[in-house]
Design goal:
Number of strands: 5
Number of helices: 22
Strand order of the largest sheet: 1-3-2
Order of helices and strands: HHHHHHHHHHHHHHEHHEEHHHHHEEH
Largest sheet: 3 strands, antiparallel
Helix content: 55-70%
Radius of gyration: 28 Å
Strand content: under 5%
Shape: elongated
Number of domains: 2
């Protein structure tokens, strides 16, 4: 920091007095603390210091951005601790002198991989890092609004730790941390003109990002009638238990005992046959029993959804339910929201085509459902308007290229009873969303509109 910048950070009278007292007994410590101050105090004010800023400095910025040896890094941390002593901020002083801080700094000096691992472990153990909850999962890339909400929650958690209402490492502390996080997100944002809570501010910012991320006026028009509804979780359909039955069957079997896999990591023929017969996917009238999972595509899709959501995992030659899988297995709505999240998951062109397909189907009146060819042509036009094109020819996607992504989506919807095909399809094909399919399509769009962002957008 240059001299002017440092002097700007040292204007608080309480800080100046504390540095004077520290300098009187240890000039080097005062000099180190003054240099570090701007990194732990936004605007230089003592009242704006919070644990998140302190631990971010001593566990990350100090060892990675300040080019000096390990002993000097520790001396700077101790100098900052001395200043916190003078400011009567004993918790922050203890953090700077703690064994955790020494261990994290030492890990950084062993290498970046070791340093990152130690840093992340220390953050998690502090108890103040906002966890993902059932109402909000944090993005690795945050808008200004989401970052402010995250900081707000961190301050709430820090206060709870300081008051003994949250004991990191104690029994049930993670569940308590989630409860406090949800409560903090439900607090009204000071000064917000429409009196939104922090959760509303974050989801609103994400919705705006989603609306603006593709240059397509037609897409915005399709979204228009659903925009308000997508800001809140969609009510599950009345038929939710029937929709998720195949997933719950798989999770129940994998929870009660491991399901056998073949050497190619597919479920064994008896398992596939049992599943097909359970849901009418295969019966005696169909002839020979399926010999492998690929013979019953529906079983494959159910497996893929469960694996995507990390509800099942492979253990040797067996498929078993994870802890999360066993937990959601008893909750139809949780499984349904997980199914929607899996459908919503793809990024890039596939994700764009999927969401546009659902928007077109939701927007069409039942009597005006497009034929398959008409749907693919419309989606190709939407993709071209948004900038998707062949890099060599410059042309937009053909119906066939769009179809290679739409057909698997429609097949998945059919498997779970969300979409039906007409017996005499006009123009080569189409169908409609069922009532359960309309609710699920809205939930898929809600996930895409308000879900966390993990990479920078183009």
């Amino acid at each position: 920091m240059d001299g002017d910048g440092q002097s700007e950070a040292l204007r608080d009278p309480a800080l100046v007095a504390a540095l004077g007292r520290l300098g009187a007994r240890d000039a080097d410590a005062a000099k180190a603390a003054a240099a570090a101050w701007a990194s732990v105090a936004p605007d230089g004010e003592v009242s704006r210091v919070h644990q998140r800023f302190v631990q971010d400095f001593v566990w990350y910025r100090l060892p990675t951005k300040w080019f000096c040896d390990q002993d000097e890094h520790l001396e700077i941390a101790h100098g900052l601790a001395g200043l916190f002593d003078e400011l009567r901020l004993s918790r922050y002083a203890q953090l700077c002198r703690s064994a955790t801080t020494r261990q994290v700094i030492a890990a950084w000096h062993r290498g970046r991989k070791a340093g990152l691992a130690a840093y992340r472990k220390a953050l998690d153990g502090s108890g103040i890092e906002p966890p993902d909850t059932e109402v909000l999962a944090w993005g690795r890339v945050m808008s200004l609004e989401e970052s402010d909400a995250n900081d707000h929650v961190a301050v709430v958690l820090e206060r709870a730790v300081a008051e003994g209402r949250l004991v990191p490492g104690g029994r049930g502390w993670r569940a308590r941390q989630q409860e406090l996080t949800v409560a903090a997100l439900r607090e009204q944002v000071p000064g917000d003109p429409v009196q939104r809570d922090w959760l509303g501010v974050v989801t609103g910012a994400r919705m705006t990002r989603w609306l603006e991320q593709h240059r397509s006026s037609r897409r915005r028009i399709l979204i228009g009638q659903w925009q308000t509804a997508l800001l809140q979780p969609i009510e599950p359909p009345d038929e939710v238990s029937m929709v998720v039955a195949p997933l719950r069957w798989l999770l129940g079997q994998a929870s009660d005992g491991a399901l056998a896999l073949t050497s190619q990591q597919l479920r064994s023929p008896p398992v596939v046959q049992a599943m097909g017969e359970e849901f009418g996917w295969f019966g005696p009238r169909d002839g020979v029993a399926p010999m492998r999972e690929d013979d019953v595509r529906k079983a494959t899709v159910v497996h893929e959804v469960a694996r995507h959501q990390r509800w099942v995992r492979r253990q040797g030659r067996n498929l078993t339910a994870t802890k999360v899988g066993r937990a959601v297995c008893v909750d139809d709505v949780a499984v349904w929201r997980g199914l929607a999240a899996a459908i919503a998951a793809p990024d890039g062109f596939e994700g764009y085509v999927r969401e546009c397909a659902l928007l077109v189907l939701l927007g069409a009146e039942q009597a005006e459902q497009p034929g398959r060819r008409a749907l693919l042509v419309a989606l190709g036009e939407l993709a071209a308007e948004a900038g998707w094109h062949d890099p060599e020819s410059g042309r937009g996607p053909t119906p066939e290229e769009v179809g290679s992504f739409v057909d698997p989506l429609l097949a998945t919807l059919v498997i779970f009873g969300l979409h039906t095909e007409s017996d005499v399809p006009p123009q080569g094909g189409f169908d409609r969303l069922t009532d359960a399919g309309r609710a699920t399509a809205l939930e898929v769009l809600r996930v895409r509109a308000t879900g966390p962002q993990h990479r920078l957008l183009n």
